[in-house]
Amino acid sequence: MKSWWWVVVCCVGWLSPAWSAITVRDDAGRTVSLERPATRVVTLAPHATELVASLAPNLLVAVDRYSNYPPAVRKLPQVGDYVTINLEALIALKPDLVVLWEGDAAAAAMQRLDRLAIPVFVSRPASAEGIATNLERLGRLLGRADQARALATKLRKQMRALRQQYAAKPPIRVFLQLGNNPMFTVSRKAFLGQALADCGATTPYQDEAAISPQASLEVVLQFAPRLILVDGPQDAVDAWQRFPQLPAVAHQAVQRFGDDRFVRPGPRFVEGMAELCRRVDSARARKIP
């Protein structure tokens, strides 16, 4: 009798799959469960594309229209952007995981994808640590847990070194401009705002509740930044020349920053933060009053 049960147990073991169900929580607090690691992934935000591509680029079957890194993703089908998502095209690709950033278009897409039982992971890293934990959770969903853990550890180490490098630096007033008319900026609740703080910058809206508050020209003029960083066209940079009384204008410290590394919370953000800190430190070294 014992030998008969041993045969049954062994057969069950041989027939059982080598994988088990995978469950993680996304950045919206939702539970995301897969029966097996994903093999067909659609990303609907550039940073999400970079996160997945850093672990398993071969699993990507479609991206959003703004994804451009790594270069190979430009050859993939594009199924949407922040405003509109082509759900029919997306569903036709039969993805087993969709990674997106929240927004009106994404919210509508999630409802339909949920009805079709297509798993969705909401990715919205708010800090360098958030980038690392996104990598780790996505790594589990993609069957690349060890690789993701190693990359997350490396990023944490690099970010910690940057923070330590600038921790003792004297603070400097910085204004970061997003867009123009209306003009927005970031608080410390945004990954970019926290990065500025880690570089030793103080900003006029750093304690705001909103992640990306609308900025008032009057507030910025009163704040008198020593460095102005503009994510926008050259016209937006040149517009500050109307205010020669600003220390940043008087000392030619109004700069454009349009590099994707600055504004995407993905694996390359540590490179962007290093450049951000370098710019802040360069303005600091000028000893502008």
UniProtKB/TrEMBL annotation:
Pfam families, per database record: Peripla_BP_2 (PF01497)
Keywords carried by this UniProt record: Signal
InterPro entries from the UniProt entry: ABC_Transporter_SBP (IPR050902), ABC_transptr_periplasmic_BD (IPR002491), Vit_B12_bind_prot (IPR054828)
Record carries keyword Signal: yes
Domain Fe/B12 periplasmic-binding: 40-284
Domain of life: Bacteria
UniProt entry tagged with the keyword Signal: yes
NCBIfam families tied to this protein: TroA_like
PANTHER family, A to Z: MOLYBDATE-BINDING PROTEIN MOLA, VITAMIN B12-BINDING PROTEIN
Protein name per UniProt: Cobalamin-binding protein
